[in-house]
Amino acid sequence: MAGLGEVCSHVGAILYALLAAVNKLSGTACTDKACSWNEPSMAAIKTVGYAEGSQIDFTKAQRKRSADGCDDLPPVKIPPPTQDECTALYSMLHSSESTEKQPVTILSVIPGLAKRYIPRAVQLNIPAPLSQMYKPQHRSLSHQELQAKREEVFTGLSITEEQCRVIENETRPQAKCAMWFDQKAGRVTASNIRAACHTDPDKPAVSLLKKLCYPVAYKDPNNNTPHSLRWGTEHEGTAVEEYTKTMESHHTNLTVRKGGLVINPQYPWLGASPDGILTCDCQEMGVLEVKAPSSLDNSTLGEKSKQDSTFCLKEVGGKLFLKRDHQYFYQVQTQIHLTQASYCDFAVWGPGKGGNGEMHIERILPDTDFLSPCVKRLANL
């Protein structure tokens, strides 16, 4: 009755599948066999005679085809270039370097033309970063020996006024400048003054040590910066513009320029990077520190000061003031102290309700009695 039922074709397909499976299982795969040479055809065997290995040409056919027609040419002795020819070549490369604004590496070893390749820090006589004082052999010292070494290094720190001026001028791009990170390393900067003053000298916070000693590690190469820092950086320019517009009418010829890393020769282990250096014809030099907190959301500055106890401003008598125990107060006092400015304008900018913008500007004057104990404490850390 085969072929007359409805399922006969399916049964046949199953039987064929079983047959194929059995053949595969019982067969031998190529990987189950030992390696062997390819067996040439009988025609090839008849045309190729026996020979010793040294007499056999193993060159690939493609290589032989590409080499056909090429004769073995005798070597030609080329005389070395003369001094005049070298000088002409170097001059031509130097000219193209200036035109194309691309360095020509060979010039880095040519006397008289290698100036461009000398590191800028060396050209400007900038002192080596404090991080280079680290010596691996110091790790084997006892605590008492380390303390003695610390005193030796600390008392030997020095920097000239000219070096301070050059560093401030060269580091004005701040986070976009490698030198800014290099010179910050190992120094207690203004933004970390409060944390450094309140840490335990015998067991300082590890996070603080990392910030002070490895600032470049906080520069995320993947731009995974925390939202609060990214917001502040993106809106810093807006805050400075709003400050300038507001204060222009209160000064004569007000100028606001970017500040670099400020180091004072009297305190070579401290540093500060104000957001702006203020100059005008009516007052002495001042500094500017702006904040654009991301936490404001739709709140006004006044509302935020009442809702958030950690906010930098507090309301007293209907007016907003920077809290004296806040890290920003420590920061601006350090900036005033190191720059020897007569004041600091502390500005807080927020988008405000409706996106119209809102700014608080407060004049902070030097408070030596406040900062002096902090500086002494840091000197003994």
Question: How would you explain this protein's 3D organization?
Answer:
It is a single chain. Helix content is 40%, strand content 12%. The chain is α+β, with helices and mostly antiparallel strands. The strands form three sheets. Strands 2-5-6-9-10 form a five-stranded mixed β-sheet. A three-stranded mixed β-sheet has the order 1-4-3. A two-stranded antiparallel ribbon has the order 7-8. A hairpin with a 2-residue loop joins strand 3 (262-264) and strand 4 (267-272). The longest helix is centred in the middle third of the chain and has 21 residues, at 227-247. It is extended, with a radius of gyration of 38 Å.
Question: How would you summarize this macromolecular structure in one to three sentences?
Answer:
The chain is an alpha+beta fold and 381 residues long.
Summarize the topology:
Elements: H1 8-26, H2 42-47, H3 61-67, H4 83-100, H5 120-123, H6 143-156, H7 161-170, H8 178-184, E1 188-189, H9 193-198, H10 206-213, H11 227-247, E2 255-257, E3 262-264, E4 267-272, E5 276-279, E6 286-291, H12 301-307, E7 313-316, E8 319-322, H13 327-339, E9 344-350, E10 358-364, H14 368-379
Radius of gyration: 38 Å
Oligomer class: single chain
Q: Assess the beta-strand content as a share of residues.
A: 5-15%
Count the E strands: 10
Q: Poorly predicted ranges (pLDDT <50, ≥5 residues)? A: none
Q: How would a textbook summarize the main sheet?
A: 5 strands, mixed
